[in-house]
């Protein structure tokens, strides 16, 4: 509000409404505060409209902050819990090369979790709060990691399908409107494409192998296909967050748009492998230039997200134990940091 505007508002309030100077001062303050909030909203909307990233010290609506904390922390938890199904096969990888590659991939996932927790922290939530939400079962993480990895082919299927779905979802997040999240995603996506290729390479090797190996690959595809489609979230019509997140450019595409892109790309890759996508409704639509596909079992999705999937309890328990057993490492790191600080002070 300009100075001139302020004075005239004050004058007209006193003259027309017959109120005291003190009361008028209070009212003007209220107007000014409202105006400055409006200015902040306008500036925020302008940045979003012009694709200028929102940075931690910028003003942002509470709901934008809340939505980001929710999505980024769920994403971070997914990376950390996502280490478990694959970690299960590190000791049983079929060769030294496969073991080294898998070890590197699982370590990458830990790194992704850490970048994402750091991005969430810039929004004013602490790492301890986030861990607490995960360990107490309050926080969500991706439904996909509540399924078991039964054979070595599952490691191929996870890399190909799960990391493939992750890339489809996360490449657009490199342009998400919140700066620290967008920047974290750039490195995450580079690593995810290596993950996807290592998975596809496992599937390619198995599909060119013996009958038993081909069967293993097909069985893994059969079990991981539908849960991979569910990774993109509920259908748009049942997604309470999509409309707002797309408007704020947190999400650049809707759940259904990304699911369709994933199906279009992945079905072609399955053909190269000589494997069959387990969907009797799958068919190419010449007119739309897209595959039509069946409906995922949304009741199963809801059940898994509610904590009742095949491995939910086991995953949470493993994370809690890792946290408790790692206490001595955190204590040792703190003691070491304290010692270095004191040494520096004394020097
Ligand atoms: N699983 O309104 P919606 C990885 C929840 S890491 C569980 O559409 P939104 C990898 C959703 O949270 C993969 N919950 O939500 C790691 C919401 O609940 P609340 C993780 C799900 O946020 C290691 C409710 O359902 N990727 O790839 O607009 C090894 C309604 O949904 C799921 C990310 O996190 C699900 N699948 O859209 C290998 C990417 N889907 O919070 C690979 C970033 C939905 O309202 N996240 N829900 O109680 C996103 O892009 C979005 O958050 C989602 C969901 C598309 C996932």
Can you put this structure into words, describing what you see?
It contains 14 helices and 2 strands; from the N terminus they run αααααααααααββααα. It has helices at residues 3-17, 21-49, 62-81, 83-87, 96-121, 127-135, 152-170, 179-207, 211-230, 242-247, 255-273, 298-308, 312-325, 327-346, and strands spanning 283-285, 290-292. The chain has a two-stranded antiparallel sheet. The longest helix has 29 residues, at 21-49. Bound molecules: benzoyl coenzyme A. Residues 70-71, 74-75, 78-79, 82, 109, 140, 142-143, 162-163, 166, 169, 230-234, 239-242, 245, 255, 305 line the site of benzoyl coenzyme A.
Outline of this structure?
By secondary structure, the protein is an all-alpha fold. It is built from 14 helices and two strands. It has helices at 3-17, 21-49, 62-81, 83-87, 96-121, 127-135, 152-170, 179-207, 211-230, 242-247, 255-273, 298-308, 312-325, 327-346, and strands at residues 283-285, 290-292.
Main features:
347 residues; mainly alpha; two-stranded antiparallel ribbon; 70% helix; 2% strand; globular; disordered N terminus; binds benzoyl coenzyme A
Number of strands: 2
**Can you count the helices?**
14
- Main pleated-sheet profile: 2 strands, antiparallel
Strand order of the largest sheet: 1-2
Q: Which term fits the overall shape?
A: globular
Class of secondary structure makeup: mainly alpha
Bound molecules: benzoyl coenzyme A
Strand content: under 5%
Terminus-to-terminus distance: 55 Å
Unreliable stretches, pLDDT < 50, 5 or more residues? 1-9
Mean pLDDT across every amino acid position: 93
| Sequence of secondary-structure elements | HHHHHHHHHHHEEHHH
Radius of gyration: 26 Å
Bin the helical content: 55-70%
